């Protein structure tokens, strides 16, 4: 099987208007057999999106329509490809209860989902860490150093794995090294292998999967997968399932990075 478990849609306010069908057609063209659409869920109640464009999550009023359209799509393409309805849920420190509330409401409609950290809390503020290199620089200034940003990021990912978000909590951890997105411009001197190892152990003991995300390979300031190959290799040896994610925000990004992720190529032999 060839699976892409992390795909955005026209419901993404910072994505493109490419139709759902265009993503599916591109995936079929590339030989994918399984897809999950994982649009950014609406941000939790009471959370003010701190990105300059305030467009991190989808509009709550569109959620019902999102699931209706995916349901139609699943049926339309049933003979060609397996399609799952999912969401990429933000883990935001301090908004666990509101996130659980959203999951309790929409969880029954989810076939699959991802839990990701995009926002870091610092004092009474939250910062979106993957918005832009300029914005990342602002985060470094707020936290005091690159090391402090990395420390906060990995701690927040750990909290996300351990958080109680109720029965519909996603069981796949999104791009677990997203903090590397601008690493060519802001290299971190400290080695975080110990923290990353701890995360792998938490993922393993929770019975979760990892989103093995190809988007970072295409980002000029990152140039590696999330997580990088050595970490993915270790996860695989530990028996943690790696689920490829293109993180496509436009149809032509389906499959991005796949050919340079040999660890995944064995999955082609699975039926
Ligand atoms: Zn996005
Ligand atoms: Zn994400």
Automatic annotation (TrEMBL):
Alphabetized SUPFAM superfamilies for the sequence: PHP domain-like
Cellular component GO terms, alphabetical: cytoplasm
Domain PHP: 4-213
Keyword RNA-binding: no
Domain of life the protein comes from: Bacteria
Pathway membership, UniProt: Amino-acid biosynthesis; L-histidine biosynthesis; L-histidine from 5-phospho-alpha-D-ribose 1-diphosphate: step 8/9
GO molecular function: histidinol-phosphatase activity
Enzyme Commission number, as recorded: 3.1.3.15
Catalysed reactions, as listed in the record: L-histidinol phosphate + H2O = L-histidinol + phosphate
Keyword Amino-acid biosynthesis attached: yes
UniProt GO BP: L-histidine biosynthetic process
Key words, A-Z: Amino-acid biosynthesis, Histidine biosynthesis, Hydrolase
Main enzyme class: hydrolase
Family: Belongs to the PHP hydrolase family. HisK subfamily.
UniProt protein name: Histidinol-phosphatase
Annotated source species: Bacillus thermotolerans
């Amino acid at each position: 099987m060839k699976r892409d478990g992390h795909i955005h849609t026209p419901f993404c306010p910072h994505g493109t208007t490419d139709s759902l069908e265009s993503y599916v057609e591109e995936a079929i063209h590339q030989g994918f057999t399984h897809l999950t659409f994982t649009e950014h869920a609406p941000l939790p109640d009471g959370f003010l999106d701190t990105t300059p464009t305030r467009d991190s999550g989808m509009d709550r009023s569109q959620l019902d329509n999102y699931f209706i359209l995916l349901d139609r799509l699943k049926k339309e393409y049933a003979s060609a490809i397996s399609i799952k309805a999912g969401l990429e849920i933000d883990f935001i420190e301090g908004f666990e209860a509101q996130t659980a509330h959203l999951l309790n409401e929409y969880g029954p409609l989810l076939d699959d989902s991802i839990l990701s950290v995009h926002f870091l809390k610092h004092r009474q503020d939250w910062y979106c860490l993957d918005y832009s290199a300029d914005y990342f620089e602002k985060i470094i200034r707020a936290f005091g150093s690159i090391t402090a940003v990395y420390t906060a990021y990995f701690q927040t990912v750990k909290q996300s794995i351990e958080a109680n978000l109720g029965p519909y909590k996603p069981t796949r951890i999104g791009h677990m090294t997203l903090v590397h997105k601008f690493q060519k411009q802001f290299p971190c001197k400290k080695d975080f292998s110990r923290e990353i190892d701890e995360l792998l152990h938490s993922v393993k003991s929770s019975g979760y999967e990892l989103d093995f995300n190809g988007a970072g390979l295409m980002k000029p300031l990152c140039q590696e997968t999330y997580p990088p190959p050595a970490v993915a290799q270790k996860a695989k040896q530990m028996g943690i399932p790696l689920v490829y994610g293109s993180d496509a925000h436009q149809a032509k990004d389906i499959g991005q990075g796949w050919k340079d992720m040999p660890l995944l190529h064995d999955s082609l032999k699975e039926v």
